[in-house]
Design a protein that fits this description.
359 residues; alpha+beta; Ribosomal Protein S5, domain 2; eight-stranded mixed sheet; four-stranded antiparallel sheet; 10 helices; 42% helix; 23% strand; binds (R)-mevalonate; Phosphomevalonate_kinase; GHMP_kinase_C_sf; EC 2.7.4.2; kinase
Length: 359
Amino acid sequence: MITVRAPGKLFIAGEYAVVEPGNPSVLVAVDRFVRVELTPSVGKGSIHSEQYGRQPLVWYRDARGIVLDHDMRPVDYILSSIETVEQYVSERAIAPRFYDLSVSSELDDVSGRKFGLGSSAAVTVATINALNQFYDLQLTPRQRYKLAMLATIAVSPHASGGDLAASTFGGWIAYSAPDRIQVLRLREARGVAGAMDADWDGFSVRRLTPPSELQLIVGWTGEPASTSRLVDDLRDRRWAEEIRYSDFLEQSRHDVEGLIASLDADDAEGVKRAIKGARRTLSQLDAAAKVGIETPALARLSDTAEAIGAAGKSSGAGGGDCGVVLASHDADLSGLLREWERSDIRHLALAVHPSEGGL
Ligand code: MEV
């Protein structure tokens, strides 16, 4: 049996703007994981995951490729990951085989509510890592990220893939997304392996050094958020309300580049300034678009951080889920944590998952 795991992630800055190819963001991987166990099987394969309920999803192969044993085809990252790797395997003339996958996640609480730590990305990366071992493909982290990106955009063409990069490479990273239209066309024209070999416009990923004088504190609002709903709403309103989107992109780039420069210089004050700037930039966007990025709970989470000289903001799409705080190691957190408890914000004790290498 093969057992692998992939970590969850948090956005530190650059959300929404990162959806546009080439716009920078900063993310971090955290030490909570999605696990995938793979057992070889014969004649058919299966996927056991809570998302399918008690019944596993059973799959076979026919001339069309992977087929399911029932009509309902879920919109699904695991299946898309399998199909993408299987296409790669077939292009490389490797004999296809069957396997059972079993998925378990630490990225939700005991009652199954998601924390918003990028579970779809982590399950995609973990599935690809398991198949990389099973078929002995010896893919580098960059190639695995590219496979994960191909699998993801087949399901969700607008996703930036920042969460995939954090989950693949670990640690702190600076990330900008590829042009997904180009990537989809590459897959169509050259197959999966050909698309992976090509350069992707806009894509870049770079290792960052964590700020030595700051700690990361994560608060979970307990409010479930839908990234696709928020991103779609923003896209609709952007046109309807003539939001000055290019100003937002420029401001976000300014904040994130400031953050990256401060991380490179290990300048704690600069890091906090950039995070506060990124919070303001998202608020200005939301004041025009009104999609509800910074909910009242996320505003409280960030205000209590600023009140103790730290910096805090929503992480990811906002609308609920988590917020991040960067505070100096000697900051007095007792008041902040008391205020969070009063506001039903749960402190998630997460450490940064270290670099997996490959960058
Ligand atoms: C969601 O976690 C972050 C967004 O920037 C969307 C994405 O990056 O795909 C809002």
